């Protein structure tokens, strides 16, 4: 097959640069390709910044990334080897900083140095590749020693002590190498990511305190309990991380680094209850470390944990964030959302009257008997039902967590009908309030509710900003509120179907 040659130029406007940064792409070895540039960081992470179909000639396309640079990006190629071929994807990670880039690429082999390369004087990506390769070799040697020390059966032997000494020596050499690399490439963005490579025990040794290094290594490498070793790692996890460095926010590694910390710390929990109580402490510990750094990095940590607590419906975690949103030095982007959530936590408590709202007949209503006969201004409190409880479910048909909850809830719903003076009715009448509000979400909702017969469906106009959602301080979905039909008071705010069943069991015992 004859190779087709394309030359593509992206114009990238970068913050603080006097001229545009361009990416020239020499596409070869394929018939054609769609080329997409995606950011790995920021609010638009993994969303296309620009996408073009490569054709003969040169193309100059401005890419609006002024607030992103320097940063890591993904170049995605959806290429056809032949005119009749089905497009096939390949991806290459690149760094865009303050230097024009020129890339010769064969999409099927975009990560093979023999088939894809940058211009000879390119800096960021060249250094990144060399560092990654050498760092892998260095870490491999340390890992071999770590495995030996952690599995050796005689920790009092001279041989084991020699192993500890050798490991400390290698740690010192490794940290010195990292320091040299950071100094050598201090003018490059990639050097700011080197700090994430530090080994925890090496971090301690690097400080030059031989006693603390030995003690740390003794805990990490001895035949002590796994919990002891893990706690030692956690205690020194942030050693060597410069939270004053705002360029950390431009790296994907920061997110991965914090996520690893959360998962490692969470593994200490033995029960679900223990895990729920541990998560707020995990967030507080990390945020306190960042609090001493740059306000933007400090704020990013608050944002990170807020999103985690909100997505898992963890009020204790949200409450833990309150002191930080009251700190004017914390540059969080989620201050208003956290304040709203805190107000909701304080307002929506068990035993209080549930917020009321008008059942708007102009909205899409399904499952109601004669909705057109509603009097103007009929409210949720006024609506009569023969069930003992009303369950408000705020959800979205286009939400993965919601789909999982709805599936389990609907199965349970169909199994809990009971006899009442008025006949057989479900013990809980489900009012499913949809937050779907876009032209793509609404059809999905319309199709989904056909499979959820028996529920009362309301699509809230305005979605997350609707009157109904605001009344209940909803910021994400799914959320359930169990309400007593007679009193309209809140009985429970379950996080899942199991918690709902448990709440009903506890209420029945009273």
List keywords for this structure.
510 residues, 4 domains, alpha+beta, globular, 17 strands, Immunoglobulin-like, 19% strand
Give your account of this protein's structure:
By secondary structure, the chain is α+β, with helices and mostly antiparallel strands. It folds into 4 domains: 116 residues, Immunoglobulin-like (Sandwich); 118 residues; 103 residues; 145 residues, 3-Layer(aba) Sandwich (Glutaredoxin). The strands form 4 sheets. It has a 6-stranded mixed β-sheet with strand order 10-15-14-11-16-17, covered by helices on one side. It has a 5-stranded mixed β-sheet with strand order 5-1-2-8-9, with no helix packed on it. The chain has a 4-stranded antiparallel β-sheet with strand order 4-3-6-7, with no helix packed on it. The chain is globular, with a radius of gyration of 29 Å. 30% of the residues are buried.
What topology emerges from the helices and strands here?
Layout lengths: L5 E8 L7 E7 L4 E8 L8 E6 L6 E5 L6 E10 L7 E9 L4 E5 L11 E2 L5 H28 L6 H27 L15 H7 L3 H12 L4 H10 L17 H14 L5 H20 L3 H17 L3 H6 L1 H4 L9 H13 L17 E2 L22 E7 L4 H14 L3 E4 L2 E4 L1 E7 L6 H8 L7 E4 L7 H5 L7 E6 L5 E3 L4 H13 L1
Parallel strand pairs: 1-5, 2-8, 11-14, 14-15
Antiparallel strand pairs: 1-2, 3-4, 3-6, 6-7, 8-9, 10-15, 11-16, 12-13, 16-17
Helix pairs in contact: 1-2, 2-3, 3-4, 4-5, 6-7, 7-8
């Amino acid at each position: 097959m004859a190779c087709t040659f394309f030359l593509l130029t992206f114009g990238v406007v970068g913050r603080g640069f006097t001229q545009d940064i361009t990416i020239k792409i020499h596409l070869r070895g394929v018939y054609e390709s769609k080329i997409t540039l995606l950011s790995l960081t920021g609010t638009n992470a993994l969303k296309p910044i620009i996408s073009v179909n490569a054709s003969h000639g040169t193309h100059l396309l401005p890419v609006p990334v002024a607030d992103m640079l320097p940063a890591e990006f993904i170049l995605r190629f959806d290429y056809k080897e032949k005119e009749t071929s089905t497009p096939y994807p390949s991806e290459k990670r690149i760094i865009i900083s303050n230097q024009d880039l020129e890339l010769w690429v064969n999409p099927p082999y975009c990560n093979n140095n023999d088939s894809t390369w940058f211009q000879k004087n390119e800096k960021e990506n060249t250094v990144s590749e060399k560092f990654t390769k050498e760092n892998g070799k260095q870490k491999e040697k340390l890992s071999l020693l770590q495995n030996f020390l952690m599995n050796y059966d005689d920790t009092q032997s001279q041989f084991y002590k020699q192993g500890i000494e050798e490991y400390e020596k290698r740690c010192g050499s490794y940290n010195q190498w990292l320091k040299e690399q950071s100094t050598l490439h201090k003018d490059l963005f990639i050097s700011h990511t080197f700090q994430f490579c530090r080994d925890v025990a090496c971090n301690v040794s690097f400080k030059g305190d031989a006693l603390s290094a030995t003690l740390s290594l003794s805990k990490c490498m001895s035949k002590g309990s796994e919990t002891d070793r893990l706690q030692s790692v956690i205690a020194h996890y942030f050693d060597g991380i410069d939270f004053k460095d705002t360029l950390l926010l431009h790296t994907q590694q920061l997110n991965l680094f914090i996520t690893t910390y959360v998962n490692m710390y969470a593994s200490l929990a033995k029960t679900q209850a223990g895990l729920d109580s541990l998560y707020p402490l995990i967030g507080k510990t990390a945020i306190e470390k960042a609090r001493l750094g740059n306000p933007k990095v400090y704020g990013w940590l608050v944002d990170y944990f807020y999103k985690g607590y909100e997505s898992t419906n963890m009020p204790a975690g949200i409450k833990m964030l309150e002191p930080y949103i009251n700190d004017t030095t914390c540059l969080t982007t989620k201050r208003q959302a956290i304040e709203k959530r805190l107000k909701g936590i304080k307002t929506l408590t068990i035993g209080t009257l549930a917020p009321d709202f008008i059942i708007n007949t102009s909205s899409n209503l399904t499952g109601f008997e004669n909705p057109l006969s509603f009097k103007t201004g009929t409210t949720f409190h006024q609506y009569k039902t023969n069930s003992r409880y009303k369950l408000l479910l705020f959800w979205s048909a286009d939400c993965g967590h919601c789909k999982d909850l709805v599936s389990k809830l609907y199965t349970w719903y169909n199994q809990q009908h009971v006899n009442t003076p008025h006949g057989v009715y479900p013990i809980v009448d489900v009012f499913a309030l949809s937050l779907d509000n876009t032209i793509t979400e609404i059809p999905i909702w319309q199709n989904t509710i056909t499979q959820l017969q028996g529920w009362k469906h309301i699509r809230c106009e305005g979605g997350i900003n609707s009157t109904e959602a605001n009344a209940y301080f909803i910021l994400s979905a799914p959320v359930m509120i169990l309400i007593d039909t007679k009193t309209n008071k809140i009985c429970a705010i379950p996080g899942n179907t199991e918690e709902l069943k448990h709440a009903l069991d506890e209420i029945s015992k009273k």
